[in-house]
Design goal:
With 222 residues, the chain is mainly alpha-helical. Helices cover 72% and strands 0% of the residues.
Length: 222
């Protein structure tokens, strides 16, 4: 009689296991946003997610592994600024408007990215992830700029590679700003000027300005 064979490798995560892992990542993400890495304690993260420390260590054997998961989550949130399936020019507009949306709706993302950027200076693993992410981001932007230029959306003399480097450097600089400076009121002038420099033919400029003004009013009232 043949004995049942066991599948090799790690079993696929059950839905509830993936949900628990995501809860731990989100709890750590919020802890970093609120208190930086100095305030990131695995026991607190486990408590926030409603599990014990042993369960946290089952999913993340080391604190560094948890931090890498936080970085991956932050990068995934930033990638939502891209809108595939549209024209290159429309995707560029969507990217800038997506950054505006994140600043307005998810300010904690910028706090987390700032903390991760600082940690990457002394953590080779985080630095490598940052490098790979930046390379992909730069290549994506460069491709969009090339195609947007070809379709007449941008000035024909624009240098896609240099412009992509300028955009990514500007946005990465935003991550390093104090959280009090990463608000729509502080960042809107920089984003608008960057769009003008690139030559993005913005549609609905008045509506965008009005939306930013309404956001500022909500901040004052709150």
């Amino acid at each position: 009689m043949n004995k049942p064979t066991r599948s090799r490798g790690r079993p696929k995560a059950a839905p509830e296991a993936e949900s628990r892992r995501q809860a731990l990542v989100l709890a750590a993400y919020r802890r970093v946003a609120d208190a930086g890495f100095e305030g990131l304690r695995t026991r607190d993260v486990a408590d926030d997610a409603g599990v014990n420390v042993a369960t946290l260590h089952y999913y993340f054997r080391t604190k560094e592994a948890l931090i890498r998961a936080v970085l991956a989550h932050a990068m995934e949130r930033f990638r939502t600024t891209f809108a595939p399936g549209r024209s290159p020019g429309a995707q560029l507009e969507a990217h800038f408007n997506g950054v505006r949306r994140l600043v307005r709706d998810e300010p904690e993302l910028f706090a987390v990215m700032g903390e991760l950027a600082q940690r990457s200076a002394r953590d080779p693993a985080i630095a490598a992830m940052f490098k790979d992410t930046h390379a992909t981001w730069h290549a994506t932007l460069r491709g969009l700029l090339q195609h947007a230029r070809a379709e007449g959306f941008l000035d024909p003399g624009l240098d896609p590679d240099a412009t992509a480097a300028l955009v990514t450097a500007t946005f990465r600089g935003m991550f390093m700003l104090p959280s009090t400076s990463t608000t729509p009121r502080h960042l809107e002038p920089a984003l608008t000027q960057l769009e003008k420099f690139i030559g993005i033919k913005k549609r609905g400029g008045k509506q965008a300005h009005r939306a930013t003004h309404e956001t500022e009013l909500r901040e004052v009232k709150s």
